[in-house]
Amino acid sequence: MRKGIIRYLFCASLTSGIWAALFLINMHHNDVSNWQKRSQEPIPAWFLEQNLQQQIIHESEQISKRHVTVKHEPEKLRPFNFNYTDPEFLDGLSKYGFNTIISRRVGFERDVPDTRHKICRQKHYSVRLPTASVIICFHNEEFHALLRTLYSVVNLSPRNFLEEIILVDDMSEFDDLKEKLEYHLEIFRGKIKLIRNKEREGLIRARLIGASRASGDVLVFLDSHCEVNRGWLEPLLSAIAKDPKMVVCPLIDIIDEATLEYKPSPVVRGAFDWNLQFKWDNVFSYEMDGPDGPSKPIRSPVMAGGIFAIDRHYFNEIGQYDKGMDLWGGENLELSLRIWMCGGQLFIIPCSRVGHISKNDNKSHEILKAVARNYLRLVHVWLDEYKEQFFLRRPGLKFTTYGNISERIELRKRLGCKSFQWYLDTVFPELEVSVDS
């Protein structure tokens, strides 16, 4: 009897082993066949260079089921030694304003440190928030930095709140931003609308073009060299849901232009001097008192400009951007003054974090000319008698032309905006202190 049982168990295990072996052989054959079929599909030559981006050629079924895998400890960049006199490094720095060698090594996706305060990580937001149209404009942006921006937004934004990403190409000239970019955008399955400007409009008008095509409740403007952090979108949408006339900015973390290391920013607010130069300013300690502490929204006199969220209807109601401004520069100050002086509010939301590459830009003569013109339009519409403080420091601009501002003056009247004196007294009294500095 015992021998019979042993013989039976032996035969059963042998039969199971044979079936398992046949199953594995069949699976291997199918995998090889599928791989051979895929390998016969034509792949553009430039795509072969992207061996760090293997995720791009996943099966479409896998792509459609993408989800965010958040690691407890983000991967750190491996130490990468290179020669700072290397012509390739210098060329990238000159062309794009940051280290493109490391940018290529990093690729399209990475985990960055969660820089939010622990209080922020414990917050919960309504499941019924407004939807967001994220608008990203670019001109000759470095390919990997642009793709990292897009991947971070798609991966770290709740799908039910992310209506769309509107990508506006402001007449880029580089080849990798043409057909190659469109090929890579196919992975996002229609979530991204790509608009190609037929002539160079500049950042200000390019953003207006993007906003005109948006269908989300809230417009979220990002630069094309950002990486959003975890839980970045919900705090912005929640603040606007409570008050549609509240314009909000995330706290902007630093991505180092030489190493691409992601560094946390302290809680700061936006400010400017009488030269109209934007700067970051310390936050008063009393503003972070109370149970919410460092997670409390921070009242900010001005925004940095590149990264903010605004209710779409309020953006139109308040007059969008000044279309008479050229390229970029000064539009952030002009919009900030208009928000405060015309009945809105501007806050920085510390629980929303977005990393931004601090580019090493050399401004061309064309940019400097545009910035000067933009400042003059701001000065003559919004500073009232205080415009003389600006001309004391920039006397050479006093008789420079700045175009027709009648439409913006009429807008100020129609909105019933307050005086710049009110702004100094109520929003930014610290500016008075620096009059003689």
Automatic annotation (TrEMBL):
The entry's keywords: Disulfide bond, Glycoprotein, Manganese, Membrane, Signal-anchor, Transmembrane, Transmembrane helix
Subcellular localization: Endomembrane system
Pfam families documented for this protein: Glycos_transf_2
One Gene Ontology term from the biological process aspect of the record: spermatid development
Bilayer topology term: Single-pass type II membrane protein
Keyword Secreted set for record: no
Cofactor list: Mn(2+)
Keyword Transmembrane: yes
InterPro entries: GalNAc-T, Glyco_trans_2-like, Nucleotide-diphossugar_trans
CDD domains: pp-GalNAc-T
Main location group: membrane
GO CC terms of this entry: Golgi apparatus
Residues covered by the Glycosyltransferase 2-like domain: 133-315
Family per similarity comment: Belongs to the glycosyltransferase 2 family. GalNAc-T subfamily.
Protein name in the entry: Polypeptide N-acetylgalactosaminyltransferase like 5
Lineage: Eukaryota, Metazoa, Chordata, Craniata, Vertebrata
